[in-house]
């Protein structure tokens, strides 16, 4: 029997990448998984594949920036499945740009998805999780909360704010006795379209980003499934005493010291 049998989970940005891996891992542990994304075709295809394999999944269109979308998603999930236990706030965007090149519009756009999106999600699910007797919220931050490069200006700021919001929400829920745990995962470089691109420009080809990847102590990028298993750990009772935690999964990169050029270290 899976560790998440009888549980219902929502994964934002679950159509592909790290979110897709989280969907697969949660479903493999027996959860009913709701893939919430704007990539309708890829999301529906992932749900169909899982169902054909005997798992339980469905796809719902969600723009994480939209409060009404969140309300409809959560009420629909509770109506169809009777409960909500797990939220993975995974949807995110990147904009590798320095403070001098960045525009306010770029910053607002990244904050809307990476910070306001999870904020809206947490507000939307807390009442449903309380009604279900508790739950686990997992926010996908980044090791850029610790690993700073000139190009992580906007992205790192959004993820650092998300990590902080994670902790205040965790303490709030714990002190209110909601039995809702809230933690963040801080991935390093992983093999997804965010870093490797999709036929177009590859952030991984930017020299500074490439130097960073070359400096990973374990000598390789992470596989999406290696984040999926961390998500399952935080979603399950295996982490029952963990809340307000930051879990880094980055091949050891965060603790390496850098000078101006990581490739020279
Ligand atoms: N790949 C990495 O190396 C890495 C490292 C650290 C953190 N992360 C974080 O992990 C998460 C997933 O990244 P990924 O690499 O899988 O990226 P990805 O680009 O492959 O996938 C992101 C998903 O989020 C969805 N999405 C984007 N905006 C959305 C919105 N407004 N509403 C709903 N869905 C939306 C996309 O459609 C896509 O399915 C992100 O939060 C990212 O910041 C990734």
TrEMBL record:
<keyword id="KW-0560">Oxidoreductase</keyword>
<dbReference type="InterPro" id="IPR002347">
    <property type="entry name" value="SDR_fam"/>
</dbReference>
<dbReference type="InterPro" id="IPR020904">
    <property type="entry name" value="Sc_DH/Rdtase_CS"/>
</dbReference>
<dbReference type="InterPro" id="IPR036291">
    <property type="entry name" value="NAD(P)-bd_dom_sf"/>
</dbReference>
<dbReference type="Pfam" id="PF13561">
    <property type="entry name" value="adh_short_C2"/>
</dbReference>
<protein>
    <submittedName>
        <fullName>Short-chain dehydrogenase</fullName>
    </submittedName>
</protein>
<comment type="similarity">
    <text>Belongs to the short-chain dehydrogenases/reductases (SDR) family.</text>
</comment>
């Amino acid at each position: 029997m899976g560790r998440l049998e009888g549980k219902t989970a929502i994964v934002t940005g679950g159509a592909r990448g790290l979110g897709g891996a989280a969907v697969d891992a949660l479903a493999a542990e027996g959860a009913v998984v709701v893939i919430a994304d704007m990539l309708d075709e890829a999301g529906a295809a992932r749900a169909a594949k899982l169902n054909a394999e005997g798992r339980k999944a469905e796809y719902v269109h969600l723009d994480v920036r939209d409060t009404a979308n969140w309300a409809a998603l959560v009420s629909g999930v509770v109506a169809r499945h009777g409960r909500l236990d797990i939220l993975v706030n995974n949807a995110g965007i990147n904009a590798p740009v320095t403070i001098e090149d960045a525009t306010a519009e770029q910053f607002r756009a990244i904050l809307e998805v990476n910070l306001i999106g999870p904020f809206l999600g947490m507000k939307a699910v807390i009442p449903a999780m309380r009604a279900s007797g508790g739950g686990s919220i997992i926010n996908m931050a980044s090791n850029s909360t610790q690993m700073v490069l000139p190009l992580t200006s906007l992205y790192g700021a959004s993820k650092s704010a998300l990590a902080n919001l994670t902790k205040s929400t965790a303490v709030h829920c714990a002190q209110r006795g909601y039995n809702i745990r809230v933690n963040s995962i801080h991935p390093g470089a992983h093999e997804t379209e965010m870093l490797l691109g999709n036929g177009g420009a590859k952030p991984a080809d930017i020299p500074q980003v490439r130097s960073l990847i070359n400096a990973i102590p374990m000598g390789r990028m992470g596989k999406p499934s290696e984040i999926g298993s961390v998500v399952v750990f935080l979603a399950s009772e295996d982490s029952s005493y963990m809340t307000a935690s930051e879990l880094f999964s980055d091949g050891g990169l965060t603790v390496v010291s850098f000078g101006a050029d990581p490739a020279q270290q």
